[in-house]
Amino acid sequence: IDALQEFKIQSGIYSAEFGRGIGQVNVTTKSGTNAYHGTVWEFLRNNKLDALPYAFGVDTPKSSPFRWNQFGFTLGGPVRIPHLIDGRNKLFFMGNYEGFRLRNQKETLFSVPSAAMRRGDFSERSATIRDPLTNAPFPGNTIPVSRLSPISLALLDYYPLPNQPTLGLANNFLAVNRNRTDKDQINVRADFTESSKSSWYGRYGWTDEGQFTGGIRLNGGTVATRAQQALIDNTRVLSASLVNEMRFGYNRFFNAAGTELNNVMDPIAAVGIPLPTKVPPDAWGLPSIGIAGFSGFGPDSNSPYINRNQNWQFTENLSWNRGSHFVKTGADLRLDHYNQDGNQFARGSAGFNNNVATGYGFADFMIGYLGTWSYASGLAVARLTAFSQSYYISDTWKLRPNLTITSGLRYEFTPPWTDTSERQITAVIPLNTPQPQVADLSLHPVLVRAGTGDFYENAGIRFSPDIQVARDGRLGDRLIKADYTNFAPRFGAAWSVTPKTVLRAGVGRFFVQDIGNIAFDMNRNLQGRLTVQSTSTNLISTWTDPFNFGGGNPCNTPAGVLCVARPLVLTSNIDRKTPYVDEWESSVQQEFTSNMALEVSYLGSRGRRLQRWINLANQPVPGTSSIVSRSPFPEFGLFQGAANVGYSRYNALGLKVTRRYSNGLTVLGSYTYSKSTDNGSGIRTLGTDPLNPQNSYCLSCEDGPSVFDQRHRFVTSAVYDLPFGHGRKYLSEGVVGKVVGGWKLNSIVTIGSGFPLTVSAGEDTANIGNCCRPDRVAGVSTALDNPTVSRWFNTAAYSRAAAGAFGSAGRSEVIGPGIINWDFSTSKELQISATNYIQLRFEAFNFLNHPNWGDPNTTFNSVAFGTINSTRTEMRQLQFGLKLIF
After folding, report:
1. Which stretches of 66-197 are assigned E, i.e. beta strand?
2. Distance between CA 201 and CA 30 in Å, rounded?
3. Neighbouring C-beta atoms of residue 586, cutoff 10 Å
4. Which residues contact 331 (CB under 8 A, 6 or more apart)?
5. 624 Cβ contact list (under 8 Å, min separation 6)
6. Are the C-beta atoms of residues 791 and 866 closer than 8 Å to each other?
7. Which of 234, 238, 569, 586 has a CA that sits 20 to 30 A from residue 544's CA?
8. Residue 7: is its pLDDT beyond 70?
9. Taking 70 as the threshold, does the pLDDT of residue 23 lie above it?
10. pTM of the model as a whole
11. Gap between the Cα atoms of 413 and 158, Å rounded
C-alpha cells in the first residue's frame, strides 16, 4: 500500500480507452522526489489476543494457533552518486519490499462412518445391506471379513474415525488443519525527466508466494506462485494540444498447484490400485473418493496444474485538445503465451452411491465396488499463443460549461488460441439430439486434432475403433473460428443542473475475452479422460479392475497405452462468439450543504452470448435402462464444453450519503438493493452451481437468482479525529493532551443478506451420467421462521426424485446466511521531528465478535443436509501496527 500513489476503480460506463470485462482497477505507483523519504512498518496478529472460535462441536472451543506478520519498507528520492550523477529535478527512484507470514489452524466438521462400519458391521443402520453376488441381505447387516476389499482397508488409513460423540453420523469428526502462507514482494521504480516535453518511467515487480493448506491424513494441498512484471513508459508533448504516451510491458507468471504428496509418495501404488499407466510424480496423491451421505476424502481431483505464462503488451495513446473537445485515441497490442501442464482425474476419482451394489455407498466402498471411476492417462500439455489487438477513439465534448458529452468506440480482436504443440482435440458434432442410438454414422461426432498427420502422434492412448478421428486440417490451426465483430460503443453525459445538482447517465458495451481455460480443456482430450459407471444390474467397475478390462480391450493396446472407450470429451462450439455485457446507468447527485451530499443511482446490465459449460451432445434422456442404450452416440460419454448459451440480468438501486461534521467526524453510508438472475453464474462451478445444468436440453430450467445475488447490502464508514491535544478544542496543552491527543478513530460496518444456494441430489437419480437435483415438495416453503446451524432451511421441502427422472427442484432456491460485521481501528501519530514521525495503529476485525455462518450443506442425501459447520468470517481478531515515516 505504501508504494501506491493512488488507485482508481473503474466501474460503470468508463471510457473506450479501457476494454474487456466490466470492472477494472488502475494503480499508480509512487515516484521519488528531490528529498529522501521512506517508511518502515510491522503489523501483527496473534491468537492470544483474539476471541475463541465458534463452538460447532460438543467440546469447548480452544484458541487455535494464529500468527500473522506483515512487514516491509519503502525508500525513494533522487539518484545521486557523488562526482558522477546528481538526479535532483531529473532522475528519481522508489523501491519497496513487503513480506507476509501466516500460520493458522482451521477447524471444520466432517461426517465420517463409524468404527463398526469400517469393520463391515452395518447393524446400526436401518438400510438393508445386500450381497451384490446374490442380491440377498448380508446376515445381521454385516459384511464378512473375507469380502472386505484389501484396497479399501488400506485406504481407511487416510480416512479418520469419528472424534465427536454425537448421536448420529452427521458432523462427527472435527478436523484441525494447519495452514501456512509465506509471501515476499519487491517493487522498484525509476523516473527520468528527459526535458520539459518528455518524461520516462520504468518499473519492475517481483512476487514469490508459497501456500500450504492442511488436510486430514495427508490430503493437504500446496500452491507455489512467482510473478514478475516489467514496464517502461514515455510521455511526450508533441505540441501545445497534442500529447503522446507509449508503454511497453512484460509479465511472467508461474503457478504450481497440487497435493502435499506431489513428488514425495505415490499412495495409489502403495495401496495397490491397478492402473494401465503410471501416475506422474507431479500428480502423486490419493484418488478423490466420494461416498454418498458422508464427507469424502482424498484431495480434489482437479490437480495438479503448472502454469508458465508470459505476456508482452504495447500500448499507444494520443491525446488532442481542440476547442471544447478532448479527443483520445490509441491501441493496445498483446502477445500472450499460455503454457500449462495438468489435468483432472490424473490420480483418478471414485464415487460410491446408494443405488449400485449393496444399496449403501460406504458398504460399496468396503467391498470395493465402484459406482463411478473417472481417470485420465496423464497430464495434458498446452502451449497456447494468441496475438490480440484493441483500438479505440473517445471524445469528451464540453458542449456548455455545465454539460459534458462523452462518446467513444472500441474495437477488440482476440483470436482463438493456437496450440503450438498441436495437441488440441475438439469435436465436429453434426447433430445434437436426445434421440437414442442414432443409426446414421455420418451424423456421429468426429474428433478432430490440430495439425495434419497421425492423429495419435505422441499420445499414450487409443480411442476405441468405433470412434471417428481425423487430423486433416479441416478446422484450421485454432479449431475455433475467429469473431471479428467486437465493436464496443460508449456514451455518457454529465449535466450540472445547478451548482449543487448533477445528473449523469451512460450506456456501454463490454466484451468478455477468453483467458485460455477453454482452449486448455481441448488439450485434455489427448489424455483420454473417461468415466466407467456401474449400475445395480451391471457392476463393471471394482478396485481390482476399475476400467473393466476384464470385459475385453477393444483397442488391443499394449501395456502402458490406455484404451479409451466412451471418452468424456471436452470441446467448444466451433462458431464461438465473444460474450458481451450491455450496461446502462443513471444517477443524480445533490449537495444539500457544503458538508452533506446525497447520490441516488440506478445500474442495469444484460449479459448475452455468455459462455456456459453444458453437455453439448450425447446427454441421454432420463431412464432406468443402461445409459449406453439411451445415448444418441453410444461410442462416446458426455461432450462437455462451452457454448454461447448463457445470459444474465442485473438491476440495482443505490443510495449514498456523505456527511462531514465540523468537529472532525466524517460519515459515509451506502445502501444497495439489487437483483441478479441468470441461467448459470459462471462458466464452471461457482458456489453451489454445478459444472453442468441438470438438463442441457432445457437451459431455461436453470433460470434463477445468480449465486452472487445479494439483495440487500448496507455499508457505513466513519472517520473521527478526536478533539484532544495540540490545536484541538480540549486538552490542547500539557502531558495529558499529548497522551490522548492526535488519535483518529475509523469504523466500517457491513450488513448484507445471504446468497442463493442450490440443493443437489448427491446421486444420479436421472441415470444420465451427471448429477441432478431432488424433487421439490409442493406447498412446502424452504424458509424457516427460526433457522439454526443445525437446521438452516426446511429440509422437508425436498424429497428424492423418482428413479430415471429429473428432480423438480429449481436452481438457487435456498438463501444462505447473511453477514453482520464491524471493523474498528484507531491510530495516532507521534512527531519525532519536523519530517519524521511514528504511527501507532490498533485494528479490530469483527469487533463485536459476531458469528457469521458459512453456507449450509445442500446435498440432499448427506447425513449433514441442512446443517452449518463453519463460519464465513473469523471471530474477533486484533491487529497492532507500528510505522515509521521519515
Report:
1. 66-78, 80-81, 85-86, 91-110, 173-195
2. 11
3. 15
4. 314, 315, 316, 389, 390, 391, 392
5. 767, 803, 804
6. yes
7. 569
8. no
9. no
10. 0.87
11. 50
